[in-house]
Structure to design on (289 residues):
């Protein structure tokens, strides 16, 4: 920390322009707010001669009162704190009586497709305060990590936002990577119905004929089996037993034929040899494990 401080402090002091984002903007006062636990943003916005705030339009809240409510939600949902260590409000350039602050203060509002979401079935996603709770509770995110999402926002909120920003053709695979367990919606402090919004993207992808052919045929094949429970149970028991035996050594597969995408960046866990139905039946019969 001492090393970083000695190198970086000089850069902060000598910079002409400090650029920050904003956790929120207040329409009533024209303020921008940044929330940090380290105070790093405060140097950026108070030491340089010019402070530029770059924030998307969904960060704008009507009043100071609204912001105080949402700030409490943000800290509790993000890190479980009562309140963030630093919540710094900037309202324009330095006044003569102020001890510090920039000579000039500019706010740049970024739309990047968000205005199109207003009035659409995705409107509710604009309530997001980027607390990350949906992501931290998501079993898919916990298994694959953030980089697998390939864009700025990972997790369930990323699965809804990304197709809105780069198009359903490029980002349509993200809302498909969900089990729809509903945990994201349950923990979201802004009550954003994330599974419903991901389902809308799946519908859009289907209606535009973008679903890859092999998915469509794969699902049709699965549906054929699913409608015939006896055959389905027999085949799933057989597959679980074979894959369990093949992967029994390490418990993982580093390569899978016809499904290389699964194992390109990580191993695939091998089934343990018995299906859920078998385990369930054994539990009901009281078979000891
Ligand atoms: S969608 Fe909800 S839980 Fe997820 S980051 Fe946004 S506000 Fe937080």
């Amino acid at each position: 920390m001492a090393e970083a401080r000695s190198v970086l402090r000089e850069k902060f002091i000598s910079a002409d322009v400090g650029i920050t984002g904003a956790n929120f903007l207040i329409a009533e006062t024209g303020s921008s707010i940044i929330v940090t636990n380290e105070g790093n943003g405060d140097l950026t916005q108070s030491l340089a001669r010019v402070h530029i705030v770059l924030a998307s339009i969904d960060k704008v809240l009507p009043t100071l009162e609204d912001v105080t409510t949402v700030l409490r939600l943000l800290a509790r949902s993000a890190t479980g704190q009562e309140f963030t260590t630093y919540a710094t409000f900037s309202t324009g350039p330095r006044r003569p009586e102020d001890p510090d602050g920039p000579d000039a203060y500019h706010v740049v509002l970024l739309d990047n497709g968000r205005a199109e979401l207003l009035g659409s079935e995705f409107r509710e996603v604009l309530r997001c305060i980027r607390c990350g709770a949906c992501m931290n509770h998501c079993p898919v995110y916990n298994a694959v990590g953030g980089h697998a999402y390939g864009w700025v926002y990972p997790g369930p909120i990323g699965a809804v936002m990304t197709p809105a920003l780069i198009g359903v053709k490029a980002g349509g695979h993200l809302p498909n990577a969900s089990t729809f367990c509903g945990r994201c919606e349950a923990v979201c402090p802004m009550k954003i119905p994330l599974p419903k919004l991901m389902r809308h993207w799946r519908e859009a992808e289907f209606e535009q004929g973008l679903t890859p052919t092999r998915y469509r045929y794969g699902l049709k094949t699965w549906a054929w089996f699913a409608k015939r429970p006896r055959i389905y149970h027999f085949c799933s028991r057989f597959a679980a037993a074979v894959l369990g035996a093949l992967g029994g050594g390490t418990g993982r597969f580093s390569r899978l034929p016809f499904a290389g995408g699964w194992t390109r960046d990580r191993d695939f866990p091998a089934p343990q040899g018995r299906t859920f139905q078998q385990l369930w039946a054994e539990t009901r019969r009281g078979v000891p494990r």
